[in-house]
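As a next step, we paired sequence with structure tokens, yielding the entry below.
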Amino acid sequence: MTTKRPYSRRSAAFGIAAASTALALFTSACGSLTTGAEEGETQTHSLDEGFHVGLLLPELQTARYEAFDRPYFEEALENLCPECEFSYANADQDVDEQQTQAQAMLTDGVDVIVLGAVDSEAAAGTVNEARSQGVPVVAYDRLAQGGVDMYVSFDNHRVGQVQAEALLGALDQAGTAGDGQIVMINGSPTDPNAGSFKAGAHEIFEGQVEIGQEFDTPDWSPDEANSQMEGAITSLGLDEIVGVYSANDGMAAGIISALRSAGVSVEDLPPVTGQDAELSGIQRIVAGEQYMSVYKAIRPQADIAAAMAVSLATGEDLDAGEYSITEVEDANGEKVSAILLDPVSVTVDNIGDTVVSDGFYTIEQICTDDYADFDFCQEAL
């Protein structure tokens, strides 16, 4: 259900560094990002009067969208445009629902849309409809088709490489690199990012390790990942599985559950990768169940998306500041100017230097009673 509310005049709970990032990005400087789509009759708005910004996010399976992306984006937008009106909706992995939500926002007079697509291909209809009404679209996290105006995400090919490099490193450390096979459990086939993760991982794995079983996982479902892992165990045998590539933390939970149900002790679990640095994933890393996750600093991503939305609505240029500008192509060959952020591998050795030092989680959030006795928490508390 779409929620809509104007911003109040209250002070946003917005960090100084984050505010500086957003404000630095939104300038009328030279060498700025340009839009990748042909614009319709787009109306130029002013910050003093404000305008209407809509944020559409794709799903609830991954905790980051509700816990971080939405509030971070809202705070950044409020910081840049206190008079702006904000609407938000999450499609909960339902393509039709997202189309309905987008249409409702367009009918309600939204001036710019920030879109995290459920399905990249299906989102082309929403993008085209918005463009026909002169409403620019920022693709958020996932590159929607249809010719969006701007795009912000992480270097998704690099994400897959980081995961694969970490898994090979764990196998080398354990001395099991040549002793068996790995299982690859990839993300949703409707998410273009999942294809990039997969391609990046394959690039690193090629010639280094044998892939015994590989799956694509509809809707990034942990339950489906659990079933896939059970099938891999039956097909390959537990003794043959030396590692598991999991494309995200939610699926890693299902994978680890399948391994534990098959009788594998925590001490004997093969290294399992992840992504998104979910709190539960970080806690599994602390407990020795999951080997790593990929930390993606969501605050800068949300800040950039808000600055892109404001620049498109006001007609001002967007300076990339400290970030590199690149150009990407969507599946139809449409070129879009983009900012792609760098992913970071998180293991038990650098939790404090990444998610804790960045304020993503506190030690108290990680080291609850169930995890307080593990080495990381004993040393941190």
Notes: The chain has two domains: 3-154+296-341, 156-295+345-380.
